[in-house]
Write a structure and sequence with these properties.
2% strand; binds D-malate; 20 helices; binds nitromethyldethia coenzyme A; mainly alpha; Citrate Synthase, domain 1; 438 residues
């Protein structure tokens, strides 16, 4: 209520005015050129999208509404109520991304209550998710579940009823909060169905992350804190990443937020994007199995041997490299700090740490990779594994629950600012040749 009625309502006219002025007064100002390399090469660094919620610097990493991860940890409300003591709550970062304001604990608690109140899943969604084959990938199940929730879209209904475009953001926000609210239960149903007894038990006296942990079947305050950290750091990574961009693209057709974010989840499910977190754990398990069978220890030497085998087989090292970052991902660093605080002697954490000590040099020697350092996915799995959450085929679903917060906060602003249908120009190879042969 507070988010919608007070904070955002005051911001929308100002931001609309500012963007309009930018367009009117400076619309023809050139901000970049596009090379053939960029055209063929996945549009790296091409500046062609406005993104309110976060910005990614190649050296420094992500800033959420101008705040680095350590700054978020220092100022955003925590579950204990003492800022700086523990990880920020997911609701804190949702508030920040949506409104650009650092919320109070009271505001965050009101948002928790609002999300819990919206979390009821339609019966047909429960029936559908419960009917899915256990061997269907959890991400596919999540996407099916979310798509089926589209029956609840107030945006689609308002559009069909002829709502004026100036009101689109008001209806979109209802859907956005609903999507964020329902995802944990869909995700928990999938986890409990695939790996356990199918029973999901809620505890809405807790925050979003704590309740999610109980629904997954975990009851450990330390795991709740990990989930808070996990959900916060995966929310947003500016607009060009595949899941956020897909959400923005699909949403630009005025598909509602349920359909738009399902598009984002489809992108997240690819191994070069969110699925890399499962691939990292698989890589580590394959490595351990191989050397245990050979009676060798897992150490810097055997990791180096295994890395070269992977590279020579023309496969990627999952969890390393990035399209934008050129340094160790600060999301990796804060997870490493969590491990040093909560599980310094954990066996797999030590494997991940040893990988970190050798992999950048291996990748530099390999010579192809623009960024030889680890990204977020390199660390997230081992933290989960430590708490007995070993079902790594499921890991990307957690990423998917979190990314909804960033991608959909931006979708709110897409509609509030009246951003148009996204439709860049493609060119044929013949046209490209004609440009250089002139
Ligand atoms: N291992 C081996 N080769 C790599 C790696 C890696 N980790 N990263 C990049 N390369 C290769 C890449 O495949 C490309 O080869 P080719 O010229 O034969 O096509 C070459 O190095 C240059 O690629 P880059 O410019 O460094 O990277 P790009 O921007 O194209 O791709 C990623 C970025 C993230 C897709 C790439 O680094 C990668 O595949 N990493 C492993 C998968 C991964 O961890 N993805 C998760 C990213 C984070 N997330 O959550 O989404
Ligand atoms: C992300 O969080 O989306 C990934 O790091 C990928 C990206 O930023 O391109």
């Amino acid at each position: 209520q507070l988010v919608r009625k007070e904070t955002l309502a005051a911001q929308v006219p100002e931001k609309q005015k500012s963007l309009l002025a930018l367009k009117k007064e400076h619309g023809d100002h050139v901000i970049g050129n596009v090379t053939i390399d960029q055209c063929i090469g996945g549009a790296r660094s091409v500046k062609c999208m406005v993104w309110e919620t976060s910005n990614l610097d190649p050296e420094e990493g992500i800033r959420f509404r101008g705040l680095t991860i350590p700054e978020c940890q220092a100022v955003l409300p925590t579950y204990s109520g003492v800022t700086g003591d523990g990880e920020p709550m997911l609701e804190s970062i949702l508030w920040l991304l949506l409104t650009s304001e650092v919320p109070t604990k009271e505001q965050v608690d009101s948002l928790t209550a609002d999300l819990h109140a919206r979390a009821e899943l339609p019966e047909h969604v429960k029936t559908l998710v419960n009917s899915l084959p256990k061997d269907m990938h959890p991400m596919t199940q999540l996407i099916i579940g979310l798509n089926a929730c589209q029956t609840e879209s107030q945006f689609a209904k308002a559009y069909a009823d002829g709502a004026p475009k100036t009101d689109y953001h008001i209806h979109a926000l209802e859907d956005i909060l609903k999507v964020v609210a329902v995802l944990p239960e869909i995700a928990a149903m999938i986890y409990r169905n695939v790996y356990f007894d199918g029973i999901v038990t809620k505890d809405t006296s807790l925050d979003y992350s704590g309740n999610f942990c109980r629904m997954l079947g975990y009851d450990d305050p330390s795991f709740d804190e990990l989930m808070r950290l996990y959900l916060c750091i995966h929310t947003d990574h500016e607009g060009g990443n595949a899941s956020a961009h897909a959400t923005h693209l699909v949403g630009s057709t005025l598909s509602d937020p349920f359909l738009a974010y399902s598009g984002g989840l489809n992108a997240l499910a690819g191994p070069l994007h969110g699925l890399a977190n499962q691939e990292v754990l698989k890589w580590i398990q394959d490595l351990k199995n191989k050397f245990e069978a050979e009676g060798k220890p897992v150490n810097a030497d055997t990791i180096t041997e295994f890395a070269w085998e992977t590279l020579n087989a023309k496969k990627v090292i999952p969890g390393y490299g990035h399209a934008v970052l050129r340094k160790t991902d600060p999301r990796y660093t804060c997870q490493r700090e969590f491990a040093l605080k909560h599980m310094p002697d954990d066996e797999l954490f030590n494997v991940v740490d040893t990988i970190y000590s050798v992999m950048p040099d291996i990748l530099k020697e390999h010579g192809k990779v623009a960024n030889p350092y680890p990204n977020v996915d390199s660390h997230s799995g081992v933290l989960l594994w430590h708490y007995g959450f070993t079902q790594f085929q499921y890991y990307t679903v957690l990423f998917g629950v979190s990314r909804s917060v960033g991608a959909l906060s931006q979708l709110y602003w897409d509609r509030a600012l009246g951003l148009p249908l996204e439709r860049p120009k493609s060119v044929t190879p013949e046209w490209l040749w004609s440009q250089v042969k002139k």
